[in-house]
Amino acid sequence: MGTLEISHLSKRFGDVVALDDMTFDVRAGELLGFVGSNGAGKTTAMRVVLGVLEPDAGEVHWEGRPLTLDTRRQIGYMPEERGLYPRMKVRDQLVYLARLHGMSTSDARASTDRWLDRLGVTARRDDEVQKLSLGNQQRVQLAASLVHDPRILVLDEPFSGLDPVAVDVMSEVLREKATEGIPVVFSSHQLDLVERLCDRVGIVRSGRMVVVGRVDELRAAGPRRLVVEGAQPASRWTAGLAGVRVLASDNGRTELELTDGADDQAVLRAALAAGPVRGFGDRRPSLTDLFRDVVSEASP
């Protein structure tokens, strides 16, 4: 398996800049979480990869070569909007889609039955898609992206509308595909899930990939945060501390951001001078914290 490379993609729709020199890669055997606010450019980038949209500039490569129609037939794509035929029966539809990707009828049927069982919808195989719950429709949509044994997976909000059991099943499937060496990229607004599941995370803003890396690397690159637990309000002891900003203070718990080489021991001394301290330590920022920081950088 190779690497999917997205290089310097640009795309405009009239006066709207959807992609602005978008660049990142998805390596063989990794899960890349693709996150950003609504309208940041995630879906547009995915549609360019699929060949649904033509970029104004930039290229997409797979294994070092530009993507062709034949290569794109090897991509498993799951759109955010459900793209299934609502009045077609589940099994018939998956077999049909597998055949479109070049599988023989017997292989398509075997693969369909395997994925219906794996995703827990075998009992609904003869139902029309429109008669399924939204969660089961989402499971079938995932099966449609997997049924032709793809070499690349590109998934747009695959966890939307799923119950916790289905989330666990889908997470397991994506991790299994990555273990097989397949590059997997998916977008999601469920940042806790992205943080738990992904090898790397890319944060998109205004059509640009502004941050990409492992979550622990991104955490280390950001400002240090401390949590101080004590009875005194932060306003009584933080004033005058250089390089210290109060992020939150409630019920004796104060969260601080330290910048410009601020001294944590000076913070501790100031807190102790104001009263008893029950707890003092670092707080590692979550992916949600990192996301807010990146988005807020663009705010006026």
UniProtKB/TrEMBL annotation:
Entry keyword annotation includes Transport: yes
Top-rank taxon, per record: Bacteria
Organism: Virgisporangium aurantiacum
One Gene Ontology term of the molecular function aspect: ATP hydrolysis activity
Entry keyword set: ATP-binding, Nucleotide-binding, Transport
Pfam annotation, one family: DrrA1-3_C
Protein name: ABC transporter ATP-binding protein
Entries under SUPFAM superfamilies matching the protein: P-loop containing nucleoside triphosphate hydrolases
Family per record: Belongs to the ABC transporter superfamily.
